[in-house]
Design brief:
By secondary structure, this protein is of the alpha+beta class. The protein has two domains: 68 residues, no CATH class; 53 residues, no CATH class. It has three helices and six strands. The strands form three sheets. It has a two-stranded antiparallel ribbon. The longest helix is centred in the first third of the chain and has 17 residues. It starts with a helix and ends in a 31-residue tail after the last helix.
Amino acid sequence: MASLLQELAAGLDACYTDLQDAFHRITVVTMSEFGRRVKENASQGADHGHGNVMFLMGGGVNGGKVFGDWPGLKEENLDRGDPAVTTDYRTILSEIVEKRLLNPHLDEVFPNFPQASFLGVVQGRTSTIGYRHFLPRMDY
């Protein structure tokens, strides 16, 4: 797994290097659709699980911090042997959509998701104008 993380880091570094002049306008989100179990499997890997991690980078990211709660890996803190989910991924993505994409219509992006308070992962402002203000009119 360490070699895969090195490969990811090299790819993100290349992204930053190539887009350096525009990086203040870019927000990169790296995440997986599944977490991993705590215990190693027979092939010295980890099976799919619940808890996961997200990496953010970009000019508008409040970096150098870990956001969310870390319950630890003690048995009583696990969810059926998995790291527990402490922050719904939509909480993070909602903040990015609203503050970086200026789209306040989160109920359309994430229907039926009860909005939680933002964690402060990105800089930006909330917008009352929103993305619709920038769309071309289609009156024909």
